[in-house]
Write a structure and sequence with these properties.
mainly alpha
């Protein structure tokens, strides 16, 4: 029908808002199929609306429970709602239909990782890599799991493999920088974090991590500058105030250092403030 053709045209053109309007019209007409509901779920996910996406993906799964992709979109919606146990169940349903689904394995691994089960997450990510060895996502995800497990050399290898396959992902460069620092490869860590910042200069955590690298390299002015950039982008980043405060106190800037530690304490990180206040 004409409404479905219009919807597909908008999807193919990448106009998500227009596609969603056309999907809404199709559903309102009473002629939407399970595939149409899944399409709208995918559009809602792209727009950051997981609750609405869950409704549509669930409807699609009920209408056609044998379709792997419908369960995957349902899992993504549940992940977005932080309903990690249910997310894993939806991934299990997808994997029952297709045991080689790298997407389902990746989502389930991320749900395990979000629940603090890095070992189980790494197993799922390894399986995803087996079925999709050229995709960056499996390596990037397993690298994060290996960081959580303290397997720093393995994390470096995985994250490097991910940046080789997808060099435009700032988060992967950031994680690679963290892993390289843990492996005492300080110059390479600085380069990786500089790449992350170049790709996405508004992320406070990238500057914070590069500041830690520059401290490790003995570049205290560079570290202080990056901590300052971090708190400018995220004034609630207490760790940056702590580190900058300690760094300033070490450099003789007592008033500025104590002001930083006092601000960190206001944000709930009081250990260093209380320790230095007792000394001074």
């Amino acid at each position: 029908m004409a409404q479905r053709v219009a919807l597909l045209d908008a999807v193919l053109l990448g106009d998500v808002e227009q596609a969603l309007r056309r999907a809404d019209a199709l559903v309102a007409s009473g002629h939407a199929t399970a595939r149409d509901m899944n399409t709208r779920a995918a559009l809602l996910l792209r727009l950051g609306r997981p609750k609405a996406a869950l409704h549509d993906a669930t409807a699609a799964c009920r209408a056609q429970p044998g379709v792997t992709g419908y369960h995957i979109n349902r899992a993504l919606a549940l992940f977005g709602l932080h309903r990690f146990d249910e997310c894993r169940d939806a991934c299990d349903a997808a994997l029952t239909r297709n045991s080689r689904s790298a997407s389902a394995l990746l989502i389930r691994g991320r749900a395990w990782l979000a629940a603090g089960e890095a070992g189980l997450a790494a197993e799922d990510f390894s399986a995803a890599i087996t079925y999709a060895p050229d995709a960056a996502a499996g390596y990037a995800s397993r690298g994060r799991a290996n960081l959580a497990l303290g397997l720093n050399a393995e994390a470096c290898r995985d994250l490097r493999a991910a940046t080789d396959r997808a060099p435009d992902q700032s988060g992967t460069w950031n994680n690679l920088g963290v892993a390289l620092l843990r492996c005492d490869r300080v110059a390479q860590a600085d380069a990786a974090l500089t790449r992350a910042i170049t790709l996405e200069p508004g992320v406070a955590r990238y500057y914070y991590n590069r500041a830690r690298v520059r401290e490790a390299a003995g570049d205290m002015p560079g570290a202080e500058n990056d901590y300052t950039r971090a708190v400018a982008r995220m004034p609630s980043l207490g760790e940056a105030y702590v580190n900058r405060g300690v760094l300033r106190l070490g450099g003789g800037a007592r008033d500025k250092g104590m002001a930083d530690l006092r601000r960190a304490c206001e944000l709930g990180l009081c250990t260093q403030y209380e320790a230095y206040k007792a000394k001074l």
